[in-house]
Write a structure and sequence with these properties.
single chain, 59 residues, mainly alpha, 47% helix, elongated
Length: 59
């Protein structure tokens, strides 16, 4: 049971794993991976959010 972003998104960076504190900019979500999770395997969305893979890496 894995999500699309976990499998196809590449390695997860520290930026993706770290929850932003108060006053910090929020992380952006990979919209394509979110839509794929919803259409293909809804529980995969939970996996992607838990691992942080659903968030875009810092540029």
């Amino acid at each position: 049971m894995t999500g699309c972003a976990t499998v196809f998104g590449g390695p997860v960076s520290a930026h993706q794993k770290t929850k932003p504190g108060p006053g910090q900019q929020q992380r952006e979500i990979r919209v394509g991976a979110l839509i794929a999770d919803i259409l293909l395997f809804l529980p995969g969305t939970i996996v992607d959010f838990a691992t942080g893979a659903i968030y875009k890496p810092k540029q």
